[in-house]
Each structure stands twice: as C-alpha cells, then as structure tokens.
Structure prediction request, 314 residues.
Amino acid sequence: MNLKIRWIGGATTALTGATLTTLVVATLTTLAMAAQPAFAQDCPGDGGIVRMGVEPFDTAPRLTPIYEKIGAMISEKLGCPVRVFVATNYNAEIEAMRNGKLEIGEFGPLGYVLAHQVAKAEAVAAFSNKEGKPDTYWASLVTYPTSDIKTPADIRGHTFAFSDPASTSGHLFPAYGMRKAGIDPDKDIKAIYAGSHTASFEALYNHKVDAGELNSEQMESAIQRGHYKDGDLVFLWKSDPIPTDPIAIRGDLPEAFKKKLTDILQNLDLTSIDEADRKVMGMHGTRFVPQSDSAYDGIRDLVKTLNIDLNKLS
Prediction:
C-alpha cells in the first residue's frame, strides 16, 4: 500500500509498508500540512508533528481544502508542523487517538463521549454561533414526498439509512426519534449504515432507501452542492438542538503543550475561511470558542436512556 503525503510548500512524498503503519492506523485517509519547522522536543507527536483527526461528516474532497487551511492556522500559531487526517469512519479516528496517533481530534458529540471514555480525549473548543457561543445543530428523520411514509411510526418495516453507528445525528438521535414513535430501530426497520452523512443522504436522494437521517450540517452541504432545495424531502421528526462537534486534545499530552494548544484552539479566528466552506462545516459563526466536557452530559444521558453500550461502538 502506498500513500502520498502532501506538504504545504513542499513536494509529495510516498510512504510505504511499515513506515505508514507506524504513522497512523491504516483506516485513515491522510491529508497534510505544515508550517515552519520547530524543535521536536517542543512538539509532541510523531517526529515532532502534531496530528489532527477529522470525522468524515462529509466527503474527503470537500473537507480536505477546508481543514488544510485550519491546520495551517494552528501550525503557524503553535510553531509545530500540523498534519491533518480525515478518517474513513468515526471509530477510526477514536482508535487513532486511543493508540496515541492523534494529538487533536474533531469528533461528533457521541464519538467524543466514547473518545473521552477510551482515548483520553478532552473537549476544549467548538465552532461558534453568530453570538460567539458554542454552536448547535439538529438531527431529523426524513423521507421523499412520493413515499408512503407520512409519520415516524410509518417507518416500521421500511429501509432506513443511518450514517455510522458512532454518529450522534446519524444514529443516536434518529434512533431516539424512532423510539419515541414506538419503533425499535434494531428490529422494526431494515437498517442500512451508509458510512457517512453524505452517503446516507445520497441513498435517500436517489431513492435507494425509503427514509433516512438528515442533519442540519449535511442539509447545508447538499444545498451548496445543488442537491437540495425546499420541498425535496419530507421531515417526519426533528431533534432539539445538539451541541456541535467538540475540538478535543489528547489528555496525556505534556501540560505546558496542552495549555498552549488549548489557548490557540479556544481563540482561533476562521474569518479567512470562505463562508461557503464554513457552511459545509456547519458553522454559523467565524471562530472556535471554549467548550467543556460537561456540555456533552446530555449525550451521555441519552446513551443511558437508549441502553447503548459504548463499548460495542468501539
């Protein structure tokens, strides 16, 4: 297996075999970026490279240029090269941090709760809303207008597209919405795990399934791609606001480095990111702002309510 790593201001380098294995778990798709060299002893990571993981909430081609810019901003302020990895699935990112292969991770709320439990992840920042507070988003159950599904209860017996078992809006909240309608999502539907929000949306958009999950971030991304306009889908149920993805750091990093990195992440100005790209990210504001672990206690409560075993997601 060959994997090409592209560095800002540098050539493309091919990594093979054991070199790649020691760099990151094989299930991660890699992107890259770096700033000016820094002393390795001041920059924990593989050879002094700080590694940042991103959950695959959209396609890698969509996320790559956006997170390259964000990685470059962090790198410039941190004084360490930053390499960004877009995971092929939610658990791949969690496993990478658990195995000491990531210093920073943007996790979904449910993925974060699991990463906090098994991978020492500590939430420090989140996207802001227009008021400069941590942003929120929503999940929903949707179908297309010509289907015979008119209420959440009508999903029973039909095919349904989830995104990923460890996804908050792509599994946890849709399952909760079904439970409220008296449906057991493990028994009463024909569940399909598409692998990402984009894939589950496309399955529904192309009528490959009868119903599916849709969150506000994926809807905005679909609008940007010209794949969604009002009336294309029927909303059967919509969740209350969900705290948006936390930016987390690995808890066993050196304290001085953690403090410096936390300060950077909690005050990162993203106004230079195009507005359309910020919409793809689900952002309504223009910066990262402080966030805490306790913001995700509601997710933990919902996990208990649904009797979800987090260990089975890892």
